[in-house]
């Protein structure tokens, strides 16, 4: 089948289309009904189906004869460890950890927060929740205690699963003190905290609340997959929005399994037995979809890499992993290859490894800049495929659909809408823009399976953020255009979300932290272009009358505060004191022009500004 036929069928006959795709997975009770509209303006996929996501990921592979195939390879240059688990071994670990959770009272629908580094136990814990019908919420290990506390308060977990430490290159980061502080700060108190002790650090356990992973596993009884409704939540994954409070994106079980299984073929061209490596972190959506669930749904071998693209030990790290494990498909964020290119511009290290197993390179998470695209093309000779998606969608909204038809790539474009996503570029009233003209990138409802079903505990926020801005559409928050050949180009966020080294962060949240400093009257944080990380946050700060603090001292304090409240990954390293902030006459800060000035782009004085002379001061501060 060609792409156009497949795409048209997905839009014109979505129920028939997704009924076919649903046949590719093992259901406990296959759905009769495919789509049911709900009164929140959205709807449910496969509402009467019964499924268990862990069964689809693991047991179904054993039933299909893949029990002895490697399911998971753990490669950790930071601890000099390699381990691999067959589908049978992985199922055993997961079923027993599900027994541990059940022993602690975790029942279907209960939430479990997983705050773990990139170790196999993180994957066991996620799949164990799925096996029980419990809802996991993985929190990226780079987030500070406060961020974890916010998520504990919102998700109200019965149990937290953590490890004694994470390892960042050679720096050991104890996790348990962060978890203890987060529980102290959170309004909700989990009943149990299960801790995996790593050799590098031993965490102190609080009697009555904390349990040791290994001790519990030693006496655990394996449990079988628990049937759940296709529409029951599988996980909550928090992502940054425009306000300080992160949004808990909720993903269901049935739609997720069907969509991810389909995406493995469509987007990546993967087959059972292939080795699939998403070089990301289980704390991000890429890790959920393509380290854990997607490759296992497809019967692939997946790689869990506890390392960096550079420094563990050098810029040849990715090529070494490809060689050692015979990786077929590598997926990462452009920033990772920018880091490699910076340290090894001529790709000399690439030449020292045998990477002939690699079929394609996939990039997503931020804009793929043409320089990185060209560098990869030139030095690897491989197809370099950009694809665009979000935490909210869980799989690619636009891709080069290699599983059905491979299109010539155009640098800067994520190629075509994936079947199921009726992507349109519209003006704020929802009217289509002509080809080549920039507007808001939106998806005509309904969204295909696998996308968010609501915001955890706040359906109103779901409607307000995604459905209400452009009636009849899902509003992506990204701007872009579609060219005359139908290629989609994503140009960047139209809101206050920024992308730092492929990590999605909210400038609004940073502003809340900066504004809480006693000397700060008002502030504004914008994302400025950065050669390595894509964007980095920069703060402009207005002091309170009478505040006498030295600007350098203030900058240091603000940097520490953002690190402490949000985490080191925010990369907040610059805060400048200014005399005034540029505002409209009605008092709104003109962030767009500040961003343009920070980036050294051309800028025009906005007609709404109250005092244009402020812009010259800001120009000088940024570029002196
Ligand atoms: N736990 C604790 N701290 C973490 C962390 C984690 N899981 N991940 C990052 N950090 C910390 C780092 O130690 C660093 O702290 P420092 O300021 O004390 O040095 C800070 O957060 C920034 O880290 P990072 O973004 O990794 O910057 P870097 O300059 O060390 O490395 C890159 C640059 C490009 C190599 C790195 O950002 C990278 O690997 N990027 C790819 C990320 C990715 O895959 N994103 C896509 C998700 S799809
Ligand atoms: P996240 O939810 O963390 O995956 O971040 C999603 C955001 O990253 C999107 O809204 C885009 O702004 C950006 N993004 C992801 N993939 C791409 C891509 N291929 N091209 C351009 N921007 C991208």
Automatic annotation (TrEMBL):
Domain AMP-dependent synthetase/ligase: 65-444
Family matches, as Gene3D superfamilies: 3.30.300.30, N-terminal domain of ligase-like
Ranges where the AMP-binding enzyme C-terminal domain occurs: 509-588
GO cellular component, one term: intracellular organelle lumen
CDD domains: PrpE (cd05967)
InterPro entries the UniProt entry points to: ACAS_N (IPR032387), AMP-bd_C (IPR025110), AMP-bd_C_sf (IPR045851), AMP-binding_CS (IPR020845), AMP-dep_synth/lig_dom (IPR000873), ANL_N_sf (IPR042099)
Entry GO MF terms: propionate-CoA ligase activity
Similarity remark: Belongs to the ATP-dependent AMP-binding enzyme family.
Name of the protein in its database record: Propionyl-CoA synthetase
Species this protein is from: Marinobacter daqiaonensis
